[in-house]
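Recap from last week: sequence in, structure out.
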Amino acid sequence: SQIETMRSPDGSKKHPARTCDDLRSCHPSKKSGEYWVDPNQGCVEDAIKAFCNMETGETCIAAKPAIIPRKTWWTSRSSDLKPIWYGLDMNRGSQFVYGDNQSPNTVITQMTFLRLLSKEASQNITYHCKNSIGYMDDQAKNLKKAVMLKGANDHDIRAEGNNRFRYTVISDTCSKHNGNVGSTIFEYKTQNVARLPIIDIAPVDVGGADQEFGVEIGPVCFV
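Predicted structure tokens:
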């Protein structure tokens, strides 16, 4: 009945849930998939689409676009080992945007409310490389050329240093300059939910004409 649906929204566009965790509590038999959520509990019109992980109760928002194609985004003669931000420094680059293209502001607002309702956030970023170090430099045996990430509150998330701002690496085949295409998967989990989503990425080992990179931006998940 309508009263029932108002009390325990089913995640439809007409009856969005507050979060995926709420949806899971009210409808434990629902399968993981795409649902509508409305964290600020405003009018139904500003609900956003999310992926609900019904095993964990996570509310996940996808990046749009989620793929940056692999190519030579940056050429430079400088041999300085410094991070070059894709969004801030590269001419054709831009910072990452999440949710629906139609209403990015709605998503920003809803994500702010989603953070207030969440205790933890996590996200994976995949760096696709050709002749560009992602994490470990196999030759130098150090992390000086490791990619840097930028969090939503402008904090840099990196390979070394303070462990609160350190990502973990799930797999890494970007450690050599051998002409092969590889990938490095970064994961960042935090209880300071204001740090996510990731909004920019900075490779250090770029600039050569034979050096390529691309990025796969995983969804940001809150629970």
